[in-house]
Amino acid sequence: MPEVLFRVDLNKPMEEQETPGHNRWHPDIPATVSVNPGAVFRIECKDWTDGQISNNDDPSDIRDVNLNRVHVLSGPVWVNGAEPGDLLVVDILDIGALQNSEWGFNGIFARENGGCFLVDHYPEAAKSIWDFHGIYTTSRHLPGVKFAGIIHPGLIGTAPSHQLLDRWNRRERDLVATNPERVPPLANLPTSHSAVLGKLQGAEFERIAKEAARTVPPRENGGNCDIKNLSKGTRIYFPVHVEGAKLSMGDLHFSQGDGEVTFCGGIEMAGWMDLHVDVIKGGMAKYNIVNNPVFKPGPVEPHYSEYLVFEGISVHETTGQQYYMDTNVAYRNACLNAIEYLKTAMGFTGEQAYMLLGTAPVEGRIAGVVDIPNACCTLSIPTSIFDRNILPK
Fold this sequence. Notes:
GO molecular function, one term: hydrolase activity, acting on carbon-nitrogen (but not peptide) bonds, in linear amides
Radius of gyration: 21 Å
InterPro entries: FmdA_AmdA (IPR004304), FormamaseFmdA (IPR054833)
Strand content: 25-35%
Organism: Brevibacillus reuszeri
Protein name: Formamidase
């Protein structure tokens, strides 16, 4: 087993860990460990909520979760010799659940506290608990379903430079200003409430907490991309914006459907990652990898061969309003069509079907963006994950 460079105690919040991690992006958050290029090491991670969700049938913890706490990340990891303009090469060698924590959760977030992709249809909180059986998972809250997971970090990225951080904050403030009273908000702006910044304290903590970006969205540094195929065997090329790169990670998922549509998406879990890192000097300019990371997927994923595919087009599902080539509306309709079908085929409630789309390895696709005025998106559900034949008869 590789050396464990970052350990977590699941019974303690992140700020009380022997080596605290962080839940904000800022170039001045100090690194917790340092490694040389070529190093192989293990990082342990808490679940993204910092242990706020319990293994029970009560969704009130999903309803009341403190979203200013998320995401708690392990790191930063300083990579010796990495400089701005380089590419940081990260290989995900292996990934798994922590011993005695072989379960995870999924949830629909309430409109008043985060919301979700289908918030207009499912505004209330709901929760499902998933038990791990090796590579498979089942849930007492979604009977008749069993599937193989593709474990991956929902969030992994490098620290932004001061200039990049300023750009993030400026553009997100401008967005919020267009509708400042919206529920849920258009973006999560910096706040010191529930900030965790490693071992920083006092005036330096207060300064950074007021400037640091939330970890909620994906950005140019990678971050919360929620890409299910970023799993074992994946190699990622991160643009380096600060000395040492300052790599951080967390928000592990046992499985996830494309889109992470319930927001508390995938099957959230605590776990560990085995990583290998290297540096390509001057790689950003050499390969023109500047704006976002690039990755090569690994060879490990569930092999499902038969799917039931649901289509959606860019017409509003209730008003009938025509949208022009809007893939967001089209994918929403594909999800809603799948949910309505599963309510009949499996006897699920809408909430159960919705949580299945967030957890099972469903495939989302942009099928067409050329035939005006309708974009077309598809959502494909593997049929063998069910204990019965769900095809129309």
